[in-house]
Specification:
The chain contains twelve helices and 17 strands. It has about 375 residues and is α/β, with parallel strands linked by helices. It has two domains: about 250 residues, P-loop containing nucleotide triphosphate hydrolases (Rossmann fold, 3-Layer(aba) Sandwich), CATH 3.40.50; about 110 residues, Immunoglobulin-like (Sandwich), CATH 2.60.40.
Length: about 375
């Protein structure tokens, strides 16, 4: 079962629209999908035609009542799509669970019970980083960070990614993050420039699909149906269809959640490593592999990501920083050509010390030769 939390601490950026329409398209493709509405506003529930005023069980019961399971709260919307609906009472969950042990794992425990019933679980999160969002992040192996072309939304996306990283460190578990741009209007110069900046900052963590703005989304929500059942040929419908395809195509890259191994943590220099080599930025061949060295004294966090780890930051290498502000890691690479980039405080950057690149400002190239 694949679990994806749809998040951003800023509201109005298209989280719920994405949750509803992505869930619908994945279900239409033949997969069994569960959408969990974790927002007290209940917009995901209403967006799929569920009357939130007359419900026997909701997400509130799922989190509060130990005896309530997903099957008790789920409402069937279509043949392969179920929804655990929300209501305004969900806003009381944080107070109700205050002081309770294991309160961040309530949703995770319930989803584990129904893992054989669904292929996908999507969780629509509220526009905040509180207990409900924490439950979703802990319960899901992946996070889809949704943002509109605005710097408030970008700021919210960066902050929630930092929160996910903290959760990952505390749990010692993999949490894969991808970024989706919504409400895109290609007619404006600002939107085009924002897209370029976002692609530079998030690199391969961004979905290739961009969701274009259309009034059809509001019309579909007004009728309580997904865009695929309201205006299948409109540009927004085509975009969510493409996103569903991209998400499903990505399945083979998502591994079973398991603890992060010691080797995947920040790689440190071996005792006795020549400090002169470290002072020279760029990749160097050393005993034990390739030493990657980057001078970035102002940086707070640096990762090495490339073709050797499938461009996935959850399998990337966190660099260590010495007293001189040089970030470094030694990596054993097989013979052949490898592409790589650094992720500096969340922004994807080429190695300034490596001029061997596919194109200017793009992936850097290093070739490892076989040692006879």
């Amino acid at each position: 079962m694949r679990t994806i939390a749809i998040v951003n601490q800023k509201g109005g950026c298209g989280k719920t629209t994405t949750a509803v329409n992505l869930a619908s398209y994945i279900a239409d493709s033949g997969r069994r999908v569960l959408l969990v509405d974790c927002d007290p506003q209940s917009h995901a529930s209403m967006g799929l035609g569920i009357d939130t005023e007359d419900l026997d069980s909701t997400t509130y019961d799922l989190l509060i009542d130990p005896s309530t399971q997903v099957r008790d709260a789920a409402v069937t919307v279509s043949e392969r799509l179920d929804v655990v609906p929300s209501s305004v009472v969900l806003s009381a969950v944080e107070q109700q669970l205050s002081g309770r042990p294991d309160r961040e794992n309530k949703l995770k425990r319930k989803l584990e019970v129904c893992s054989a019933d669904y292929d996908y679980v999507l969780v629509d999160c509220p526009p905040s980083v509180g207990l409900l969002t924490f439950n979703a992040i802990v319960a899901c192996r992946e996070a889809m960070v949704v943002m509109e072309p605005s710097y408030y939304s970008l700021h919210g996306a960066v902050k929630v990614i930092e929160t996910i990283r903290l959760v990952r460190q505390q749990l010692g578990m993999r949490k894969r993050v991808r970024v989706l741009l919504t409400m895109f209007d290609r007619r404006t110069r600002f939107a085009k420039e924002f897209l370029k900046e976002a692609q530079t900052r998030f690199g391969r963590e961004m979905y290739s699909t961009v969701i274009r703005h259309t009034v059809r989304f509001r019309e579909a929500a007004n009728w309580g149906v997904a865009i695929s059942h309201y205006a299948r040929s409109c540009k927004g419908a085509r975009d969510y269809r493409d996103l569903a395809y991209e998400v499903q195509e990505d399945e083979n890259r998502v591994e079973v959640e398991e603890p992060i191994t010691e080797a995947e943590e920040a790689t440190r220099l071996e005792p006795g490593m020549d400090e002169w080599i470290l002072s020279q930025p760029g990749p160097h061949f050393v005993e034990g592999g390739v030493l990657f060295s980057l001078v970035a004294p102002e940086a707070n966090h640096v990762e090495l990501v490339g073709s050797f780890n499938d461009w996935d930051r959850e399998h990337g290498v966190e660099l260590s920083r010495n007293a001189n502000g040089v970030w470094h890691a030694t990596l054993e690479l097989p013979p052949g050509k490898h592409l790589y980039k650094y992720v500096i405080d969340g922004a994807w950057r080429p190695d300034p010390a490596n001029e061997n690149r596919t194109t200017p400002n793009e992936d850097c190239v290093i070739e490892v030769y076989r040692r006879d």
